[in-house]
Design brief:
Number of helices: 4
Radius of gyration: 27 Å
Structural class: mainly alpha
Number of strands: 0
């Protein structure tokens, strides 16, 4: 009976990954997301700067290019840390939502399986009763 409940199909862990590889993959995903976010914000900023520069007279092209690249490098310097924090928080939020969905889905599968197998339902009811008496 315990073997049916603890099969790989139904077992899951709600704990955070403890292996260095899992943490490294999480950090790499966060860095990738922050890089993409930084590139998007920077490209939008450069488009706006280019639109402003296009309205200037042709005699000011050197000053315009200097202004454009000044805006680009200033944006890189100023926006990288906040965007990294935002993307890290967003990645954590998405990961926790995905994990909550997976846990909920596994519990639904277990409940559906328990409806078809009275032994599993009895085991779940006993576990529920034990948790009620302990609390």
């Amino acid at each position: 009976m315990t073997q049916a409940i603890n099969t790989p199909y139904f077992s899951y862990s709600t704990a955070q990954p403890r292996t260095p590889r899992a943490r490294r993959e999480k950090v790499e995903a966060s860095r990738t997301l922050s890089g993409m976010l930084l590139a998007a914000v920077l490209s939008a900023l450069l488009v706006v700067a280019d639109q402003v520069i296009d309205t200037w007279v042709d005699g000011h092209m050197l000053a315009a290019w200097v202004a454009l690249w000044t805006v680009a490098f200033a944006a890189l310097a100023l926006l990288a840390p906040p965007l990294r924090k935002v993307s890290s928080g967003l990645a954590t939020l998405i990961a926790s939502a995905v994990q909550a969905y997976q846990v909920r889905r596994m519990e639904e599968k277990m409940w559906e399986y328990a409806h078809h197998d009275p032994r599993i339902m009895a085991e779940l009811q006993h576990a529920w009763l034990r948790s009620q008496t302990e609390a």
